[in-house]
Each structure stands twice: as C-alpha cells, then as structure tokens.
Specification:
The chain has about 450 residues and is an all-alpha fold. The chain is built from 22 helices and no strands.
C-alpha cells in the first residue's frame, strides 16, 4: 500500500482509522471446521493480517512526523487497540502477526510456530540479533528495526493492559528474552521505557518458567540497576521507574521459583535469586535503588505494587549480605511508612497487613534499626492495637477464647501511655490467629522487649 503526504496529524489519524475499519469489519465466515481454528476463510485471514501490517508500515513511514512525543505514540496505539481489529477471533490473528513483527524487528527470531528462525543466544544468555529482513516483510536493520519494534511494542503494551491474552502469548513465545539485548544496547529513551514496561506487564500477571529465569543474564540485572542509579546520566525518569519495576517483579518471580514468601531465599532450593545476588555484590553502588523503592512504597496505592516492594524488602532483610543495604535515614522513613500503613489498612486487607508484618520482624531485628530503637513506644502501641488493644473486658477475652484466636488483654499501663498520654482506641473485633502470631513475633524483637513488663 502506498501512502501520501498528509497535511496534518488529523489527516494521518483519519487515514489510520479508515485502514483499521477495513480489517475490523471483516466478519468470520464460519465458526470453525472448514476454515480452521479461527473461523476465517484464507482470503479473510490474509486481509486481517495485511491490515495490521499496513498499520505498522504506516506508523513507520510517518514515525518522524507524527510519532514524536509520548502522547503521539500513545494516541496512535490507543486508536489501534480500540478498533474492531482487536475484537473477537480477529484479535488472535492480529496478535500473532504483531508478535511476529516484533520478534523480527528486535532480532529475537523465536516464534517457531510462525515459521520463523530458531532463537540464538550469546554465551551470557542474551539473544543475538540477525540483521536481515524478516518474513513479516519489514526490515529489521538498525534504526528501521528500532522504530518498528517501538511501534509493535507500544501496541502490544496497550493491548496487554486491556487483554491478558496478549501478555500470555508474549511470554509463551519468550518475548522477554528477545527484548533484553535491545533494551541494553539499541534503544533510545522512549523505546527502552516502552519495552521495559512491556516486560514488567508480561511478568507481573503470570508465572515465568524457571528456564527463562535461569536464562536471564546477570549482565541484564546489573544493567537494570545501572539504569535506576543513573550511571551515565542519560536515563529518563520513566526509564528508571520502569527498570525498578522490572527488578521488583523479577525478584517476585525468583521467589516463586526458588522459595516461599515466608522462608529465607534459597532455603529449600538450589536456585539463585539473581536480583538479590546482584544487589549483595553491588550494594555499595546501588543505593539510589533502595531510596527509590521506599519512595514508591510511600506513594503507591496499588496493593499489587505494594506487595512487590514488600517481597523485595523481605528478601533484603532475610539475606545476611543485605541486612544493612538501606541507609539508616531511609530506614526511619521506611518504618514511618510501615506504622502509617498498619494503622490505616482496612479490616479486609488481611493479605497486605500480614505481608507488612512479615517484613516488619526482619526489618526490626536485622537492619540498623536494631541499634537505633526508632519510635519504640509508637511501635509497641501499634502492635498492641493489632492484638486487640483493649482494657480487661470479659466480652473481648471471651470472643477470642471461643474463636481460637490469640489475644492480649491490656490495662492503662500499656507502654507509652504514662504521664497522661491519650489511651488507645478500643477494639472489640476478633484478631485472626495469623495476625496474632505475626504481631507476637515482632514483639519478641530484643529491643522491643527491653524494660517491658
């Protein structure tokens, strides 16, 4: 398809929508059987595939004119994924064709189910990059490949955020491994950020095969830490945030593969958590990462992101080599965040509350806070409140005895309430056994037990 010079961006978008409408209105001729698993005749399928290829070619042709800003490329991708082309069985065909173009452009060459070449990797586990034109019909050479990969990646990213099927397809075809070399060596700031965000979304919603985790090279992990640290001063805030999130989600994936959230890393399996291992080796030059994750935990309201941060901190505070990774001043900020969140979490946020408490114990017992004794009285008040925080009340005691829950009855002589301080709020709700067990474990930290009846 030949394109002409558009007078404005509005004309470009109008032509884009016209192209999308051609493929979006192509109806499946049959629900299966004679026309295969997708229910389309060969001619209809060719039309649908040709449509998405035309869309990518069009974006590539006018990339420098109408894709300059983040808003421009985001608007383009939004128009594409909200079109009829991404509805029903057509979406399966489109996603597979888009995946094929992405792999050829970034040099992965893995999609064996599409007739592509097999993947080749370097000795450190990063995929090598072929320089020839791929079977998608779009050149994968140098700058051209970077533009095409950025176009395909941003469409896949927005589609993946709307439909998990796209992210599952990307992981099945090992797209994350194919993207590593491009992220490390080829892309400019926007392309790198988009691909890092795509990698994060892929690995956030599904479990990654252990073979993939073992293939990820330490050089890539080191590179991601370097992005967050801003080693050469050329990384944008968006790149640094995306790299940090990839490291956090990779840590969770290694935990799932090699250990459980309640056990120290590598306690029951021989695998290595490459994120924590790299951090232990380079802890003195990766300090900005620690500050950044504390800022993220302080600001984010998404419980899933909070859990990612907390799981990383659990690994840090249960790994001897990283007990004192964080600056002491950062630890006081972190403890303030813990106190605020544990005070404010709603009653139905049990999973998040338990995770905070699981991390709180090693934070208090293993980090520099074991010597600082920061906010000791406030911590004790918080922990007692989580156990019920009540005066001697038969009703309260009886409710816990009957339910099998563990509780502690307190009088006005609770620590921190002398000298006319306001007594705690009183609760008459049941405390779960898990909450009680985790709180009591925190109360066993040596510097919280000192001088306490």
């Amino acid at each position: 398809m030949e394109f002409y010079d558009f007078a404005s961006r509005e004309d470009f978008l109008a032509e884009l929508e016209a192209v999308l409408q051609v493929g979006g209105t192509c109806e499946n001729a049959y629900g299966g059987g004679a026309y295969g698993q997708y229910g389309f005749s060969p001619g209809a399928r060719e039309l649908i595939e040709g449509c998405i290829v035309t869309v990518v070619r069009m974006a590539y042709r006018y990339f420098d004119d109408y894709m300059r800003s983040d808003e421009d490329i985001a608007q383009f991708a939004s128009v594409v994924v909200r079109s009829g082309l991404f509805e029903g069985p057509k979406a399966i065909i489109v996603r597979r064709r888009l995946l094929r173009m992405l792999l050829v452009a970034c040099g992965g060459g893995i999609g064996s189910s599409f007739g592509g070449s097999s993947n080749s990797s370097s000795s450190d586990g990063t995929p090598t990059t072929p320089s020839s034109t791929g079977s998608s019909g779009i050149s994968s050479a140098s700058t051209d490949g970077e533009k095409i990969c950025e176009i395909a990646a941003v469409v896949a990213l927005l589609d993946g955020r709307r439909n998990v099927e796209m992210l599952e397809l990307l992981e099945t075809e090992r797209v994350g491994l194919a993207l590593m070399q491009d992220i490390m060596f080829r892309y400019g700031p926007r392309g790198r950020r988009i691909e890092l965000e795509l990698m994060y979304e892929m690995w956030r919603v599904q479990r990654v095969d252990i073979e993939v985790l073992e293939t990820i090279s330490e050089k890539f992990i080191e590179f991601l830490f370097g992005v967050v640290e801003g080693e050469d001063g050329s990384y944008s805030d968006g790149e640094q945030d995306a790299a940090m999130r990839v490291l956090l989600v990779l840590n969770e994936q290694y935990m799932l593969a090699y250990s459980s959230v309640c056990n120290p890393p590598n306690s029951s399996a021989g695998g290595v958590n490459k994120v924590i291992n790299t951090l232990a080796q380079k802890s003195t030059v990766c300090k900005r990462f620690g500050s950044a994750v504390i800022i993220l935990l302080n600001r984010v309201r998404d419980a899933s992101v909070q859990l990612l941060v907390l799981k990383f901190m659990f690994q840090v505070f249960t790994t001897k080599a990283t007990f004192e990774y964080f600056y002491t001043n950062d630890l006081t900020v972190l403890l303030d965040v813990f106190i605020r969140e544990l005070n404010d979490l709603p009653a139905d946020a049990e999973t998040l509350r338990h995770t905070y408490l699981r991390v709180l114990y090693p934070l208090l017992a293993h980090s520099q806070l074991r010597n600082a004794h920061y906010k000791r009285d406030e911590l004790l008040r918080l922990l007692y409140r989580l156990l019920g925080g009540r005066t001697l009340t038969p009703l309260g005691v009886e409710s816990h005895e009957n339910s099998g829950s563990t509780s502690m009855s307190l009088s006005q002589s609770e620590p921190g309430y002398a000298n006319g301080n306001v007594p705690p709020r009183r609760y008459y709700c049941r405390v779960s056994e898990t909450t009680a067990r985790l709180v009591n474990r925190c109360l066993e930290v040596s510097w919280l037990r000192e001088d306490r009846q």
